[in-house]
Amino acid sequence: MLIDSDFLESIDNNNCALISYLIINILREQNPQQDKSHLPENYVNKPPLNSSIQIINIPESNKYESLNKNINIVDKNIKIPRINHKSTIKQSEDLFGIFVFLIDQYQNTLENKKIYISSLINSFDEIKNNKSTYKWIDPDNTDQTEWILNHLTTIRKTKIFIEPIFYIETIFRQCNQYEAIFLLLTAIPMKEKELTLLKLKKAWSQQKFRMSGKAKKAHHLPLTKDTTKKLKALSEVMNMSESQILENLIGEKYRLTILDENGKPKY
Length: 267
Known about the structure:
Number of domains: 2
Distance between the termini: 78 Å
Strand content: under 5%
Largest sheet: none
Structural class: mainly alpha
Oligomer: single chain
Order of helices and strands: HHHHHHHHHHH
Helix content: 40-55%
């Protein structure tokens, strides 16, 4: 059941994140439960497989390629495997080609397919424009995207569970780091998403601080009792921590001893 070319041409086939999002949702299992808290953001219900138009294939002959399954003209002893969008894998690196293959194989009416795909595209746009979820991530900051992707996959073990696994492997080969992050975050169940994002943002803030070189390293300075007493007194009088006082004293001594009048190192 091929979708007409005009409809397919309206889809941005160069948008890796969009096409991957469509593939993932087509392959995602239908949700039989009412509780949506375990579902991803903006979950779109799939149209059920229409058994009345399901294609069958007779191994002994290619003479009957699209028989209605209710037509009883085949020997009952012949095993007839049902064909659907998961029964055959399209071995390709072309994500749009995979998408077209899967939606063509999906057994439902053309109109229902179009409605479903249009709903998925609208869902994708809504998710993409969610500033609190994605706008803090800079697609051009490779340090950030590399760290977030590693944190999600290695530390948090975030995965996209779909079958066949070949398709998800192809998606991650074709998408860039930002697109992969987007897809992983969209797959997180709603009941876990807010806390996951909070932890992710906090962890990234800590990582940025470490990367800035401003992170403080612990040092043990063996001071005499008298010096320790004086340091504590200074801390109380100046209303500063002992470490701040030491940093200020070292900074001042460094400026007077190491730097010239123009602030450049003399040695």
